[in-house]
Write a structure and sequence with these properties.
The strands form seven sheets. A nine-stranded antiparallel β-sheet has the order 11-12-13-14-27-23-22-17-20, with no helix packed on it. The protein is globular. By secondary structure, the chain is mainly β. About 10% of the residues lie in helices and about 35% in strands. The protein contains three helices and 27 strands. The chain has two domains: about 35 residues; about 350 residues, Beta-galactosidase, Chain A, domain 5, CATH 2.70.98.
């Protein structure tokens, strides 16, 4: 009888151990399920967008988070075709200029939402000398080369690789620019990674390597209208640019080679300033640019990645902050928008209905020995990051 009782006791103990282990296992599985659910804070999906006249298929990737930010990116030109963020009432609205279809993007337009390369901004007379050899580029801005030429990165098909996890969703784009494409030397392999975070920020990481010495200056060319209403101009927005100096230009918008202090000029945006306050001033540089279309020399270049600029729309409450490790930023006030290009929902994009904040090196650096170099050698890695962070101020 005592033996039987002992056996029953042992069995009960084993059963209890088994139940405890099973309970712990269930808790572990529940914890794992909760972890998996947390990875759904940011989403990404892919759809066919259209086909070019050359028969190239173009996809659109949609990145979305739980805070109301949605970004659409095309494999054509790496274009941000749509970007929606909430206003102070919590309503998500479109804040970048774009078109409804691929056909419009393939027609001539001022680089709406596109990746720019090999060289953002202008190179004088479409020429530069590298190690004693002159390179002649494709020109597309009068006698100058602009934004990589007429068939620059903004008109190329990029391959894409998507990923998500935790609070981020990433889209890594790749393009291989062949030696002498648009006149630039070297086979250049380029990666641009868009990362949407759950704090309503979008990171843009640029990377490149080459097999021959070349020049590189990559940027992103989205036009922002933080009001969410593209029938309104951007003139009442407040801009901040952390820069003590400007890169002045000649009549062809090519740098003179000298830098000028912004103090007591319409170009002093070190404190928030309304764009339209002095845009019509009788200032030589404003006259040449037909408004703001200049590169600012950013402060604290030795600190690397830091705050560089912001834009704020009082009516919507939307605040855009820009962070970068680049030496310069081109602020463009949409001076050449002329009412000829169609808006998404009818009407046309009128004068100054979008603004650009393009982080970059200075224009024409390959021809300006005193500017920071844009040269890239074999074995070196070009790497730079810019973040566009959206929030609201009430």
């Amino acid at each position: 009888m005592n033996v039987l009782k002992r056996c029953i006791s042992v069995f009960s103990l084993l059963s209890l151990v088994f139940l405890i282990a099973q309970c712990k296992g269930n808790q572990k599985e529940e914890k794992q399920e909760n972890t998996i659910q947390k990875t759904d804070n940011v989403y990404i999906n892919k759809k066919e967008y259209g086909t070019t006249s050359a028969g190239q298929k173009v996809d659109v990737y949609t990145l979305k988070n739980q805070k109301g930010m949605v970004v659409n990116i095309l494999t054509y030109g790496g274009i941000i075709s749509s970007l929606k963020v909430p206003n102070k009432a919590g309503v998500s609205e479109e804040v970048v200029i774009g078109f409804n279809n691929l056909e419009q993007y393939t027609k001539a337009n001022p680089y709406f939402g596109a990746l720019i390369g090999r060289y953002g901004n202008r190179i004088a007379k479409g020429k530069f000398i590298l190690d004693g050899k002159e390179y002649v580029l494709a020109t597309n801005n009068g006698k100058n080369a602009l934004h990589g030429g007429p068939e620059g990165f903004h008109r190329r098909i990029w391959t894409a690789e998507e990923a998500k996890g935790g609070d981020i969703a990433t889209l890594k784009l790749k393009y291989v620019s062949k030696d002498m494409e648009e006149g630039y030397p070297g086979n250049l392999t380029v990666f641009v990674t868009y990362t949407l975070n759950n704090d309503n920020s979008l990171d843009v990481l640029y990377e490149a390597n080459t097999d021959k010495k070349t020049v590189v200056n990559l940027t992103q060319h989205s036009y922002f209208n933080l009001s969410g209403d593209f029938s309104k101009s951007i003139l009442n927005d407040k801009i901040t640019i952390d820069a003590d100096n400007l890169v002045p230009v000649d009549a062809d918008l090519i740098p003179t080679g000298k830098l000028t202090d912004v103090t007591n000029t319409p170009f002093d945006f070190r404190k928030p300033r309304i764009i339209g306050a002095d845009i019509a001033a009788k200032d030589d540089q404003l006259i040449k640019g037909k408004g703001y279309d200049h590169c600012w020399v950013l402060n604290n270049q030795d600190k690397g990645f830091r705050f560089v600029a912001s834009a704020y729309n009082l009516a919507s409450g939307r605040l855009l902050e820009v962070y970068s490790d680049q030496p310069g930023i081109q602020f463009y006030s949409g001076n050449f928008l002329d009412g000829t290009l169609p808006m998404r929902n009818g009407g046309t994009y009128a004068h100054r209905t979008g603004l650009c904040l393009e982080t970059q090196h200075y224009p024409d650096s390959p021809n300006q020995k005193d500017f920071p170099t844009t040269e890239l050698n074999p074995g070196e890695n070009y790497k730079t990051k810019t973040t566009f962070k959206f929030s609201v101020k009430r």
